[in-house]
Amino acid sequence: MNDPTLDLAIDLIRRSSVTPDDAGCQETMIARLKPLGFEIHRLPFGDVQNFWAQRGTGAPLVVFAGHTDVVPTGPLDEWTHAPFQPTVQNGMLYGRGAADMKGSLAAFVVAVENFLGAHPQHKGSIGFLITSDEEGPSVNGTVKVVEWLTARGQKIDCCIVGEPTCREQLGDTIKNGRRGSLNGRLTVRGVQGHVAYPDKAVNPIHRFAAPLAELAAIRWDEGNKHFPPTTFQVSNIESGTGAENVIPGALRARFNFRFSTAVTPDELKSRVAAVFDRHRLDYTLDWTLSGNPFLTPAGPLVEAVKSAIRAEVGIETELSTTGGTSDGRFIAPTGAQVVELGPINRTIHRIDECVSIADLAALARIYARTLTLLLS
């Protein structure tokens, strides 16, 4: 039986669009959207390809947002099937990007085609905001398109991001918010010397040990009804020359906060600095805010998506704000309602990434029904 969502997903997956390369994925989508009456704006920034497509001019403007770029494959010899040679086996579609998020992109397009076939004179507008920079630095992608839209006076009312959100069953989880992400880059300065003469050196590893233990033990907040407590994790530490008889002269570390709305970035920065200062570290610390937390409370978009899931797959969905960041963090500050809904996320970024073929077809139906509830 012909399955248009599967066919389009296969077409997208066979394009090796490792971030920030789009590899023709966006042109493939544009070729499907243009005959439907979408006005297309190609918006390259730096080495990143983006496009904005819109059909209609009225409110509400309901947008599908996603990314065509994928993470690197990892060792090719560990893949059962070549990552950019999509393979169907036992009801599953295998390939890099199958779940994150080319399957969702295919479901977006097919959902809109089916919705327009039934509702050619729909109210409001439909938009697509697609980037090739979500898996990379995220500096020339969605954030730039949102700036472009703002400069045009364009406001998104509702946005569905196709991130893979489900845990065990399609529709069991949607994200109606995300925690913020704050990154720290730390340098602790010591004095290099011979390990046999520690009195003539200052070991930055030893100096950092106590404040690190203190930071790891801190309860930063208790979270709230929408967000879990803030977490602190060290991701990288490097120090030393590689020699066993040299006390290093510096230590470099990277760490991250995933934070709730119960604390602000400035509060976290201040509390970290207080720990380092109390331990009299000689240090420099640079901060990067990847995004503030956002939340879409119960309202038209959340209720439409929940109703669509209930109608199409027969389950009650759970609202969640856990997990990593997404490009929703750039869209929500404009005042848009933002939710994320996509396939099961068990295999994302892994060897042999895959998605259920039946879930792809059901996801397209959920998206189409959501449009029906919002725009008909």
Structure characterization notes:
The protein has 376 residues and is an alpha+beta fold. It has helices at residues 4-13, 25-33, 98-118, 142-151, 204-217, 265-278, 300-313, 328-331, 357-375, and strands at residues 39-42, 50-55, 61-67, 87-89, 92-94, 125-131, 158-161, 173-175, 177-178, 180-189, 193-194, 231-239, 246-247, 250-259, 283-291, 294-295, 318-320, 337-340, 354-356. The chain has a six-stranded mixed beta sheet, covered by helices on one side. Strand 1 (39-42) and strand 2 form a beta hairpin. Helix 3 (98-118) packs across helix 9 and helix 7 crosses helix 9 (357-375). The two termini are 29 Å apart.
Fraction of residues in H or I helices? 25-40%
Describe the largest sheet.
Answer: 6 strands, mixed
* Major sheet strand order: 1-2-6-3-7-18
Which term fits the overall shape?
elongated
Number of strands: 19
In N-to-C order, the SSE pattern is: HHEEEEEHEHEEEEEHEEEHEEHEHEEH
Number of DSSP helical runs? 9
Arithmetic mean pLDDT: 97
Distance N terminus to C terminus?
29 Å
Low-confidence stretches: none
Structural class: alpha+beta
Q: Percent of residues in beta strands?
A: 15-25%
Radius of gyration: 23 Å
